[in-house]
UniProtKB/TrEMBL annotation:
GO terms for biological process: signal peptide processing. Signal peptide: none annotated. The chain crosses the membrane at residues 18-36. It catalyses: Cleavage of hydrophobic, N-terminal signal or leader sequences from secreted and periplasmic proteins. Residues 37-127 form the Peptidase S24/S26A/S26B/S26C domain. It comes from Saimiri boliviensis boliviensis. This is Signal peptidase complex catalytic subunit SEC11. It holds the Pfam family Peptidase_S24. Its main location: endoplasmic reticulum. Component of the signal peptidase complex paralog A (SPC-A) composed of a catalytic subunit SEC11A and three accessory subunits SPCS1, SPCS2 and SPCS3. Within the complex, interacts with SPCS2 and SPCS3. The complex induces a local thinning of the ER membrane which is used to measure the length of the signal peptide (SP) h-region of protein substrates. This ensures the selectivity of the complex towards h-regions shorter than 18-20 amino acids. CDD domains: S26_SPase_I.
């Protein structure tokens, strides 16, 4: 049994070896957290990397593709841009394309989204009574992606395209 073998290995270690293993594990975890927090600061996004979870953006993105996001306040949202947004009451963010923008006289912008593979816009996904998204709903905007090549030959090339 795997867990018993692990415990036997731990029992055979002296205190110094055990301390060294715990320290190594702690350094790996803290390094990963520092890298993630650093990416958050650099990109301005609470989630600098997201995974596409549905087929609503096919053929542009497929399930399992990784998107690299930025969320710079000074960059205006444009029609055709791919945004990741969060709807109040839902934990999982949605990846869709900006379909329309509505700008008020005071410069306040609202926008409507739609999945490339969906027949209708996203108004049915928004919370009750909400017809437009606002900048506060945006987690980030897709600036690059990482996916497997889905060619006829089924080669497993990987693509990384970044627009910074």
């Amino acid at each position: 049994m795997l867990s018993l073998d692990f415990l036997d290995d731990v029992r055979r270690m002296n205190k110094r070896q055990l301390y060294y293993q715990v320290l190594n594990f702690g350094m790996i975890v803290s390094s990963a957290l520092m890298i993630w927090k650093g990416l958050m600061v650099i990109t301005g996004s609470e989630s600098p990397i997201v995974v596409v979870l549905s087929g609503s953006m096919e053929p542009a993105f497929h399930r399992g593709d990784l998107l690299f996001l930025t969320n710079r306040v000074e960059d205006p949202i444009r029609v055709g841009e791919i945004v990741v947004f969060r709807i109040e009451g839902r934990e999982i963010p949605i990846v869709h394309r900006v379909l329309k923008i509505h700008e008020k006289q005071n410069g306040h912008i609202k926008f409507l989204t739609k999945g490339d593979n969906n027949a209708v816009d996203d108004r049915g996904l928004y919370k009750q009574g909400q017809h437009w998204l606002e900048k506060k709903d945006v987690v980030g905007r897709a600036r690059g992606f990482y996916q497997e090549n889905r060619s006829v030959e089924d080669r497993n090339y990987l693509f990384l395209i970044l627009e910074l």
